[in-house]
Design a protein that fits this description.
Elements (H helix, E strand, L loop, with lengths): L11 H11 L3 E3 L6 E3 L1 H20 L3 E2 L5 E3 H4 L3 H7 L5 E4 L2 E3 L5 E3 L4 E8 L4 H8 L11 E10 L13 E11 L2 H22 L4 E5 L11 E8 L5 E11 L1 H5 L3 E3 L5 E3 L1 E8 L1 H10 L16 E6 L3 H20 L4 E3 L7 H10 L4 E6 H6 L1 E6 L5 E5 L3 H26 L1 E3 L3 H10 L3 E5 L4 H11 L2 E6 L7 E2 L6 E2 L2 E5 L3
Parallel strand pairs: 3-9, 17-18, 17-19, 22-23
Antiparallel strand pairs: 1-2, 4-8, 5-8, 6-7, 9-10, 10-16, 11-12, 11-24, 12-13, 13-16, 14-15, 19-20, 20-21, 23-27, 24-27, 25-26
The chain binds one RNA strand of 77 nucleotides through helix 4, strand 13, helix 10 and helix 11.
Amino acid sequence: MSKGITSRSEDYSQWYNDLVIKADLAEYSAVRGCMVIKPYGYAIWERMQSILDKRFKETGHSNAYFPLFIPKSFFSKEASHVEGFATECAVVTHYRLKNDGTGNIVVDEDAKLEEELIVRPTSETIIWNTYKGWIESYRDLPILVNQWANVVRWEMRTRLFLRTAEFLWQEGHTAHATAEEAIAEAKQMLEVYAEFAEKTLAVPVIRGRKTENERFAGALETFTIEALMQDGKALQAGTSHFLGQNFAKAFDVKFTSKEGKQEYVWATSWGVSTRLMGALIMAHSDDKGLVLPPRLAPIQVVIVPIYKTDEEKANIDAYVEKLSAELKANDISVKYDDRDTQRPGFKFAEWELKGVPLRVAIGARDMQNGTVELARRDTQTKETVSQEGLSTRIVALLQEIQETIYQKALKFRDEHITEVNSYEEFKEVLETKGGFISCHWDGTVETEKRVKEETKATTRCIPLDFQEEEGVCIFTGKPSKGRVLFAKAY
RNA sequence: CGGGGUGUAGCGUAGCCCGGUAUCGCGCCACAUUUGGGAUGUGGAGGUCGUAGGUUCGAAUCCUGCCACCCCGACCA
């Protein structure tokens, strides 16, 4: 925890791991590559869920649930899709165990499944197989469905929240009568994600589209939001895909149009995952631990009493009861930490580690003076203020903290977008400064692959506010129509 | 799956080369003094040294097999 979060040291990954564990968010489980999300970490995820879910409902979507298992034959119906996921699937081959006679439990070879089941790495195939039965006419469209689920991708190397073998996410799957409508949906949901990242997580993101090489397996267009972490590496924080008619064709999903013609439906899918937890942690945390933006913090205000006698404690209790009620009336979540098993200094450090945005400390001295001590987590500043009008002050302060955290991340992000005009410069910036590199690229997959091999940097996106600009590719010298963003990424 | 490394108390470790039943710190329990930034003192509990076998009078230590985990690669819309 003392390595220095903003330094781009090789210990960053160790630092991150320690933080996740010490702040009580998650830990590795006994199952290889899988993670246990602990109650405090899960509370943050639940905040994300509830805010996102509300937006999904507001934009006309409903929740549903589809099976965990996907028959192998479904999975292989869309060629590029299966190719994209084939190397990281968990496969169920048997449905029974037995005692081998010596007390060992073994797989019963007689219970071999005729068709293997894939544990979903994503649900496009099972969902499109289902949609086939739901869609006959243009009157059945659009279908706007989301599911909250777990998925499994058998990754070789894992990192808490950022890449685990099993993770939690939401995946939206929509069906439309026209390509225009589907594209509009994909863009709309990207904006929902972007706004959530910026307004709630206080993480600025770049909205863009993926190059063909980085596109989702089976998509015609992948929109992405890209965030920047404090070590200078980029993180893909959410994606929204225009799937064209690929899945409709693979699963034969047609509808009768107003004109009485049989047409394939147009699809989108979009998702964000517990990876957002990683983004949140790496975007804001400092050497003292987690920094949570108030809109997301499960506990927004923690109150710590400081006392010597029972009488002093009773006095403070009475005041805190009143203050808590006022704060709760303003929709602020409050924790009164009056454990008598820990001393104040310990509690201060502990809640800072857990990222609680605002701390109120009240001692006997304060009770005499009619004051409290307010301590901000984000700026690590303290001030003594009057108890008069305190709840109003706290409401305003929480908003200010939210804004300050965002502005700090935004400043860092903007300072780490560098325009370069030569490969030498590209490599130099990548090694020393990190962040996004804006440069001309000839648009070919070969060049992307070569750059990745030589520098580990990948194209993150073609920004949506892409400006046409004549130039030459810094890698090959071929003509280019504009700048794209490269970065090393998680 | 390749290359490297590590398994000793809840966590982090010393001991291993050179064999004699295990060190220190954190944490935990009790009591006392403390309480406005991670308290202090005294006492205490907790270990099949990853696992199976071998060598030996004797193995955490030497040898062999196995297992697990970590790091670096490959992989990761």
